[in-house]
């Protein structure tokens, strides 16, 4: 896509429909459908009297209200992705972890630390704490692929909902070590408590995002 590879940059006007038909050797109807899809997906804005203006598409949309795995999210967008597992081990629960995971039996807790690379840049740091009695047998291979796919397809559990908190915090030393933070001094942090269908709290996640690469979106409906 010429917008994706930056042949057309943000703020530039696309060629006319006639010029696009000639460039891509296709019909005007096909070009109009393509422009409509680009507008729907946030790549261009049609401006009366000016044509189609390219929007900034460097930021990846992250659905705040959804409960989607990183693999599912990036598979939908078509970016090149890579997950690197930095830590995977069992912790003996302490008071803080017991409270975070509602762990009355004080079972061991998995700690999983992963960086997420999108199109060659490490821009997300995920730190997961997961009850071992509910999610046994974690391996590096599973964590590099998809935790949720393993939980749902291999363990047969139903992940239902999450409670989320979104804050902005200073870049940490861990962020600097594991991510490409560049000149940024703040991170967008999403902390999630994730529940199964039977309301069991099994996972607490801290997901740290480089702010220039994401826009956090939601759908809201006004009720009276």
UniProtKB/TrEMBL annotation:
One of its GO terms (biological process) is negative regulation of DNA-templated transcription. Residues 1-57 form the HTH gntR-type domain. The keyword Repressor applies. SUPFAM superfamilies: Chorismate lyase-like, Winged helix' DNA-binding domain. InterPro entries: Bact_HTH_transcr_reg, Chorismate_lyase_/UTRA_dom_sf, TreR, Tscrpt_reg_HTH_GntR, UTRA, WH-like_DNA-bd_sf, WH_DNA-bd_sf. The keyword Transcription regulation applies. PROSITE patterns: HTH_GNTR (PS50949). Keywords: DNA-binding, Repressor, Transcription, Transcription regulation. Pfam families: GntR (PF00392), UTRA (PF07702). It comes from the Bacteria. GO terms for molecular function: DNA binding; DNA-binding transcription factor activity. PANTHER family: HTH-TYPE TRANSCRIPTIONAL REGULATOR TRER (PTHR44846:SF12), MANNOSYL-D-GLYCERATE TRANSPORT/METABOLISM SYSTEM REPRESSOR MNGR-RELATED (PTHR44846). This is Trehalose operon repressor. It comes from Thalassobacillus cyri.
């Amino acid at each position: 896509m010429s917008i994706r590879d930056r042949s057309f940059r943000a703020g530039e006007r696309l060629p006319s429909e006639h010029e696009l038909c000639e460039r891509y050797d296709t019909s005007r109807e096909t070009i109009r459908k393509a422009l409509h899809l680009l507008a729907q997906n946030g790549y261009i804005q049609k401006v009366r009297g000016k044509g189609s203006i390219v929007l900034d598409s460097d930021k990846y949309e992250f659905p705040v209200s959804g409960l989607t795995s990183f693999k599912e999210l990036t598979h939908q967008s078509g970016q090149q992705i890579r997950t690197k597992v930095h830590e995977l081990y069992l912790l003996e629960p302490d008071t803080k972890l017991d409270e975070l995971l509602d762990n009355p039996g004080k079972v061991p807790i998995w700690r999983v630390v992963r960086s997420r690379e999108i199109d060659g840049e490490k821009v997300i740091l995920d730190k997961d704490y997961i009850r071992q009695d509910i999610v046994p047998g974690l391996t590096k291979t599973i964590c590099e692929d998809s935790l949720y796919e393993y939980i749902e397809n291999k363990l047969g559990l139903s992940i239902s909902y999450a409670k989320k908190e979104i804050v902005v915090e200073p870049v940490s030393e861990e962020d600097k070590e594991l991510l490409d933070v560049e000149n940024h001094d703040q991170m967008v942090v999403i902390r999630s408590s994730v529940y199964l269908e039977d309301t069991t709290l099994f996972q607490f996640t801290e997901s740290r995002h480089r702010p220039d690469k994401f826009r956090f979106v939601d759908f809201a409906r006004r009720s009276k």
